[in-house]
Amino acid sequence: MTRVLVTGGGGFLGSHLVERLEREGHDVTAARSSDYDLTRMEDTERMFDDASPELVFHLAAEVGGIGANRANPGRYWYANLIMGAHVLEQARVHETQKVVIAGTVCAYPKFTPVPFAEASLWDGYPEETNAPYGVAKKTILVGAQSYRDQYGLSSIFLLPTNLYGPRDNFDLETSHVIPALIRKMVDADDDIVLWGDGSPTREFLYVDDCVEGFVLAAAHYDGRDPVNLGAGREIAIRDLAELVADVTGFTGTIVWDSTKPNGQPRRSVDGTRARELFGFEARTSLRDGIDRTVAWYRSARVAGVGRN
């Protein structure tokens, strides 16, 4: 049994990871923002004092879709940067054995060759709408490497591609594309409007597959280099919308508002490093994952939760 601290433990990815770790018999502290404000060093210190962790998964983040990123660039830069810095410093002070940090595919340059290889991470500036968030996360990678070099802190940095699944954020003001599509199509009476022209591509990783990647990396990887976690399939947003329409049974018209931004033109990651270093491969097909997510949303909708 290991004492494990999961920051963002009440969030989307965090809650699934906590369930997995508890099933495996670990002593897990699921840190939530209502209990600890990680932008405050005193709260971060108190969290480490309370949990006395041997292993930390740093998943806490302030994040959203294109609209949320455009509305909150300063907050997303500051909060994500300072939370990561505080966690690294307290892990050093408390002599934590290992820290696993969640990065973001948004950190890659806007025009990175597809599939994104980890060696390309510093080859340019991220797509403008999510650059503050992506740059903050990349800075935490630099911090983790620096703390490894100076203090010997064992920390690894994982770059999951776009996540989705049950318990995702379905708030239309802050959600990412799959939960937004699901909510719009399940709730719609007729037509729906989607941002952009549908041409950008994305890669989507089912949340349970991502959890598997984090668990495998924590157990088997201890290097300074960042590692992608992906599903190995790129899909255009227009095709994704048609897939979600098919799964949900949506029969209305999809209207594309090309006056709104598309975001990064293409986004798909090279999963070679994760496969070779710790044996990770995603196992959930996009259709199966969306089907499970739609079923969860419909159930939560009936119960009056998950709509925000």
Structure summarized in a few sentences:
The chain is of the alpha/beta class and 308 residues long. It has helices at 12-23, 41-51, 66-71, 73-93, 131-151, 177-187, 207-220, 237-248, 272-278, 286-303, and strands spanning 3-7, 27-31, 55-58, 98-102, 155-160, 162-164, 192-195, 201-202, 204-206, 227-229, 235-236, 254-257. The strands form four sheets. Strands 2-1-3-4-5-10 form a six-stranded parallel beta sheet, sandwiched between helices. A two-stranded parallel sheet has the order 6-9. It has a two-stranded parallel ribbon with strand order 7-12.
How would you explain this protein's 3D organization?
It is a single chain. Helix 1 crosses helix 7, helix 4 runs parallel beside helix 5 and helix 6 packs across helix 10. The relative contact order is 0.14. The chain is built from 10 helices and 12 strands. Strands 2-1-3-4-5-10 form a 6-stranded parallel beta sheet, sandwiched between helices. Strands 6-9 form a two-stranded parallel sheet. It is an alpha/beta fold and 308 residues long. The chain is 43% helix and 15% strand.
Cα radius of gyration in angstroms: 19 Å
Number of helices in the DSSP assignment? 10
Percent strand: 5-15%
Order of helical and strand elements: EHEHEHHEHEEHEEEHEEHEHH
Instruction: State the end-to-end CA separation.
Output: 36 Å
| Outline type | globular
Mean pLDDT: 94
* Percent range of helical residues: 40-55%
Give the low-confidence spans: none
Query: Count of DSSP E strands?
Result: 12
Category by helix and strand content: alpha/beta
Query: How is the main sheet built?
Result: 6 strands, parallel
Q: How would you write the strand order of the largest sheet?
A: 2-1-3-4-5-10
